[in-house]
Amino acid sequence: SKLCIFTLHCGLAFVFLVVVPVNGDVSYSIPEEIKRGSVIGNIAKDLGLDVGRLTARKARIDTEDNSVKYCSINLNTGELIIQERIDREGLCAKKASCVVKQELVLENPLELHRINIRVQDINDNSPQFKEESLKIEIQESAVKGASFLLDEAHDGDIGESAVQSYSLQQNDNFKLNVKSKGSGRKYGELVLDKELDREDKKEVELLLTAFDGGSPQRSGTVVIHVTVLDANDNHFHSTLWCVDRLNDIFFQLLLRLGRSKANCGELTIFF
């Protein structure tokens, strides 16, 4: 029941208690994002109301807290109609249950019925990664089985419509290990399956795909750029190259000195 207080008459305050009968709730379940004008149900029939008297009783939909009126009533048929778009993620974020509360108000006599509309999640969002590409640097000395954590994908939907799995494009060096956090969220690890050789390939490009469990299934992708860092396994060859280069420089220096002293007598070099 509702309590209504009326005051102020000729400077004196009077309090009247008006009890508004609440004759019971009615509940409906609808998918989010259904089109404006869609019929939720015949509320007059469900509540046993006389459709012919809806207009005379000024039947209307109201809200408890002056929030958005998501539905209206067809006074000719008694049907409850979607009036505004209902976005479950916008209303309830990641909550498991999402209920929109409205009220049916009638007059003569005054009567109120609470309406609970349960909004079901639909798969209207695709998995997304924070970045368009992921960059990872790995030493070529990394051993087989080494793992590298990957950024997880995020999905605006909940339950089965959230991210459920990942897949990695076929390649020669890596495989994917999918794990779950305590909250149930899935994430992937890049696992080295074949050791890297920078002299063979300095960079490796991979494609990671995240899938949700909705119907129809949606997916999102991210490119992984792996840079193979030198483990200095060619240090001996690099040293030989440096020695050869120094010899060349020294030989060129001798030639220049020889030319500049050609007309000035004998040139002697001491080591």
UniProtKB/TrEMBL annotation:
Keyword set, alphabetical order: Calcium, Cell adhesion, Cell membrane, Glycoprotein, Membrane, Repeat, Signal, Transmembrane, Transmembrane helix
Cellular location(s): Cell membrane
Membrane-topology descriptor: Single-pass type I membrane protein
Alphabetized CDD domains for the sequence: Cadherin_repeat
Domain of life: Eukaryota
MF-aspect GO terms: calcium ion binding
SMART domains per the UniProt record, alphabetical: CA
GO biological process, one term: homophilic cell adhesion via plasma membrane adhesion molecules
Domain Cadherin: 29-129, 130-250
GO cellular component: plasma membrane
Broad class of the protein's primary localization: membrane
Residues in the signal sequence: 1-24
Protein name, entry field: Cadherin domain-containing protein
Organism (species): Amphiprion percula
Lineage summary: Eukaryota, Metazoa, Chordata, Craniata, Vertebrata
